[in-house]
């Protein structure tokens, strides 16, 4: 069953995330469960997420979902702009809301960290060269 798109293709924040993510070696974009997902062999960042609050889904349409190890999860989840996304939160993913105060240099670093945890070694070598 195909999911309806849950994003605006002309969203300027998506454009910024797309530029950051697709600059990484062999990164590509696809739509997964209605949201943009950036991947190599595995997804390393999703654009947009949601959480379940009192039985209803609360959307976070302008956010990124990042994969992190336990230390990274602890650090990300201590931020005031963070949330634990439905379905993916238990697997190491954390959401960060984007907005006017977002530091996109920091977001780029966090996306790269997520990429490093999911990309094959040959792509990590390409990134470091």
The helix/strand order is HEEEEHEEHH
Largest sheet: 6 strands, antiparallel
Number of strands: 6
Gross morphology is: globular
How far apart the termini lie comes to 41 Å
Uncertain regions: pLDDT < 50 for 5+ in a row? none
Q: Average pLDDT across residues?
A: 95
Total number of helices: 4
Helix content: 25-40%
Rg on CA atoms, Å: 14 Å
By secondary-structure content and strand pairing, the structural class works out as alpha+beta
Spatial order of strands in the largest sheet: 1-2-3-4-6-5
Strand content: 25-35%
Q: What is the topological layout?
A:
Elements (H helix, E strand, L loop, with lengths): L11 H11 L5 E5 L2 E5 L3 E11 L2 E12 L2 H8 L4 E2 L9 E5 L6 H15 L2 H8 L1
Antiparallel strand pairs: 1-2, 2-3, 3-4, 4-6, 5-6
What does this entry show, briefly?
33% of the residues lie in helices and 31% in strands. With 129 residues, it is α+β, with helices and mostly antiparallel strands.
What do you see in this structure?
With 129 residues, the chain is an alpha+beta fold. It contains four helices and six strands; from the N terminus they run αββββαββαα. Strands 1-2-3-4-6-5 form a six-stranded antiparallel beta sheet. α1 (12-22) crosses α3 (104-118). The longest helix has 15 residues, at 104-118. It is globular, with a radius of gyration of 14 Å. The model has no long low-confidence stretch (mean pLDDT 95).
């Amino acid at each position: 069953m195909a999911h309806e798109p849950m994003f605006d293709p002309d969203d300027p924040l998506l454009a910024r995330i797309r530029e950051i993510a697709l600059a990484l070696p062999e990164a590509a974009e696809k739509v997964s469960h209605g949201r943009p997902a950036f991947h190599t062999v595995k997804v390393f960042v999703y654009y947009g997420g949601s959480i379940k609050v009192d039985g209803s889904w609360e959307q976070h349409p302008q956010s990124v979902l990042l994969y992190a190890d336990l230390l990274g999860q602890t650090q990300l989840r201590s931020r005031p702009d963070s949330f634990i996304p439905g379905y993916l939160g238990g697997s190491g993913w954390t959401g960060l809301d984007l907005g006017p105060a977002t530091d996109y240099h920091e977001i780029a670093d966090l996306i790269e960290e997520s990429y490093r945890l999911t990309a094959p070694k040959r792509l990590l070598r390409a990134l470091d060269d």
